[in-house]
Design a protein that fits this description.
By secondary structure, this protein is of the alpha/beta class. 21% of the residues lie in helices and 32% in strands. It has 2 domains: 230 residues, Alpha-Beta Complex (Spore Coat Polysaccharide Biosynthesis Protein SpsA, Chain A), CATH 3.90.550.10; 196 residues, UDP N-Acetylglucosamine Acyltransferase, domain 1 (3 Solenoid), CATH 2.160.10. Bound molecules: uridine-diphosphate-N-acetylglucosamine and magnesium ion (MG). The site of magnesium ion has 3 residues, from loops.
Length: 460
């Protein structure tokens, strides 16, 4: 029976994200602070999206446009709707700001907070199932804490059923002693919720309209209020200050690295001092040393070795790649069996093709390095394409900028670029050509030619 009801019932999600977050002591709205490199609000939105809701409604207020931009950087515009809460008058008022979108809907609305980022979609699904199976008008996600300070307390009646939620600031001594807390996550019958919200008053210690008053109003009206008791404290923890933010960053990192070790077969030499985005993917038998940072949606292949001090951001690394100490690889691609570093810098969609090598103090920007080609020492390659099995000598520079515009350098296959060559773009070097040490190349070089000197002259 329960599952039939569940299938028919549409789910809407509402996320409260209008508050400033005074306790952060910040010029930045709380939900824009970053956890694992992403704004808090984006964590909540992507978890909600997994549930396949009809729509996600985000209540915005403080820095609303920035919150909107952050959300839309990861989500389709038609999956999300923004409701503006002009003044932050409390969580009841926050939900009420979405009234025009939601009030007539025969749906279940799942309410989440933008500052509770680690809640898992599996937990939410279970809670929604219980809500539908029980026929409750509201289900509150609760948890028991050793130290419930700061949270709203869930007060049960003598028979163990829900009675009311009391906020910390309104609670008396015996209520404060209750350790079951309101996570701020709820399912509501949408129509009943908006009917009740119209009657919520702000006669409390904070002078706010509390969403937490609604469940007791339901109970009084004879509706069932369910409690979904969860046992993972970490998931429901809210972020109210920077100490909690740092603690959560640590927790999330630990969770990510544990998962990669257990499920993906990745070795971390020093898990506590390794910083891996929860969205990064790894192949098996890759070994990650201490002080490595992997950001964003980076993908690392199998059998790689990443030595200490390297940062990889939104990059794709193939299989069997060796990355030596202190490299920075951003928005770039490294093919199978490549060698990188130490101290190499890849950026702006640099591509290293299979088996190529970039050595110490080499920078690649918007450059394709062909199969088996090498730039081993002290080189800048920008806006260049380099063919296969070409060797770029130490100190080579593509002079790609003339003060106004960027220009391309094209280097063919089996080319030998001598040490300290300046390639003044736009310029082409044909297959099998060579340059002598210290050449300044201002004209195209034909295939097989050797150029030397300044300015370049050609001879067979
Ligand atoms: C709230 C709950 C409390 C619960 C706790 C769990 C109420 C009255 N209290 O308290 O029972 O234990 O969450 O974390 O609901 N917001 C708005 N507009 C507003 C006020 C808040 O959008 O006018 C947003 C905030 O940006 C935040 C969320 O709602 O994302 C929760 O607000 P917050 O002020 O953090 O509530 P808590 O005091 O934590
Ligand atoms: Mg809070």
């Amino acid at each position: 029976m329960g599952s039939e009801v569940k299938e028919e019932q549409a789910i809407d999600v509402l996320i409260m994200a209008a508050g400033l977050g005074t306790r952060m002591r910040s010029g930045l709205a709380k939900v824009l602070h970053r956890l694992s490199g992403r704004p808090l609000i984006n964590h909540v939105c992507s978890t909600a999206a997994v549930l396949g809701p009809e729509k996600i409604y985000v209540v915005i207020g403080h820095q609303g446009d920035d919150v909107k931009t952050a959300v839309l950087s990861e989500m389709d515009a038609d999956a999300v709707e923004f409701a503006l809460q002009k003044e932050q008058l409390g969580t009841g008022d926050a939900v009420n700001s979405a009234r025009s979108f939601l009030e007539g809907r025969g749906s279940t609305v799942l309410i989440l907070s933008g500052d509770v980022p680690l809640i898992r979609h599996e937990t939410l699904s279970e809670m929604i199932s219980q809500h539908h199976d029980s026929g409750a008008a509201c289900t509150v996600l609760t948890v028991r804490l050793d130290n419930p300070t700061g949270y709203g307390r869930v007060i049960r009646s003598d028979d163990g059923n829900f009675d009311r939620i009391v906020e910390q600031k309104d609670a008396n001594e015996s209520e404060l002693a209750v350790n079951e807390i309101n996570s701020g996550i709820y399912c509501f019958d949408t129509k009943k919720l908006f009917a009740a919200l119209a009657n919520v008053k702000n006669n409390n210690a904070q002078g706010e309209y509390y969403l937490t008053d609604v469940p007791a109003m339901f109970r009084e009206a004879g509706d069932t209020v369910g409690l979904y008791v969860h046992d993972d404290r970490a998931e429901i923890e809210g972020i109210n200050d920077r100490v909690q933010l740092a603690e959560m960053e640590r927790m999330l990192r630990e969770r990510t690295i544990d998962r990669l070790m257990r499920e993906s077969g990745v070795t971390f030499i020093d898990p506590q001092n390794t910083y891996i985005s929860e969205r990064a993917k790894f192949g098996r038998d890759t070994v990650v040393y201490s002080n490595v940072t992997v950001e964003g949606t980076s993908e690392i292949g199998s059998g790689c070795v990443i030595r200490p001090g390297t940062r990889i951001s939104n990059a794709k690394i193939g299989d069997g790649v060796e990355i030596l100490d202190n490299c920075l690889i951003v928005d770039s691609e490294v093919g199978n069996a490549c060698k990188v570093g130490p101290m190499a810098h890849l950026r702006g969609h640099a591509v290293m093709t299979e088996g190529s090598k970039v050595g110490n103090f080499v920078e690649l920007k918007k450059t394709v390095l062909g199969k088996g080609s090498k730039a081993s020492h002290l080189t800048y390659l920008g806006d260049a394409t380099i063919g296969e099995k070409t060797n770029i000598g130490a100190g080579t520079i593509t002079c790609n900028y003339d003060g106004k515009n960027k220009h391309q350098t094209e280097i063919g296959n089996n080319v030998r670029i001598g040490s300290d060559t300046m390639l003044v773009a736009p310029v082409k070097v044909g297959d099998g050509a060579s340059t002598g040490a210290g050449s300044v190349v201002t004209k195209d070089i034909e295939p097989g030619d050797l150029v030397v000197g300044v300015p370049a002259r050609t001879r067979k």
